[in-house]
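Can anyone check this?
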Amino acid sequence: MAAGSDKAIEAAKFLLEEMSDTSKLTIVPGGIGAGSDMKMVHQVLAAIHILAASEAMGLASRLNMDMLQARALILNSEAWSFMHENRSPRMLEERYTPPTSALTIILKDAGIVTTMARLQRFPTPLTSTAEQVYLSGLLRGMGPEDDAGLIRLYLSEPSSQPVLNLKEAKRDSVSDMKLVISLLMGIHLCAAAESIAFADHLRLNLSQFSNVVNSAAGGSWMFRDRGPRMIEKHQKLEKTEWIMQDRPNTIEESVDSMSAVVQAARDIDYPLYLGNTALNILLTMKHRGWEDCADESVVRFWDKQV
């Protein structure tokens, strides 16, 4: 990925092509700094999805689910993300040293995002929540360890060890799996919206941003499916542009499914840092009167005029 003046890019093009796979070389329009902005906004998704993987797998463990089966079902569902597929094997093995990707790396990236967001006076609620959890991990000595180890912040026992009490003894595994998938879908939906809104605020080419995400570590099923409509419609001010037609979910339905997850987690004293943040974003949209609109209209949460 590179950016600069047209003259500089033209002069350096031969060298860039020598240094990279030309099919993956991305020239970002916008001059000096645009490439850094593109990478930074991609890391909005990376920072959220890494923690979401721990939050969801921790919930599956807390619900006494078969962790290997839970992972397989997630990867074959609308809850898929690159980060979940990549990080979850290390959670299953409980292998955090030596790190494949240390916690300090994603903490650094999240900090770059939130620092820029403050400078721009732009809200990044999910990335900011993730950063706070990463800081909690750092204070517990997890900094040099693999970021998949953040699952330990959610559990009092190793993820492979069942935690059973009378309240949970007769749980329905199918219903519990739906809760875990709904959790990830809600987080990924709002993460897609947060990244697209921030990219637009920084005047990045949204079509190019979408291509970068879908071919990189920030990818998710929800971004691939909802992202194009967020990009197509996000500047349309009329609510009627977002009313459900052939879309599978409304804001109201997303609120209902995320509320069910949050309540189920609260019933077993399990924390949902990202889940609660995503729910409150969706509730804000409902409060503004967007409950009958397609769930991708959540991207309007970041608009100055709603």
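Reply from J.R.: I decoded it. The first helix runs from residue 6 to 19.
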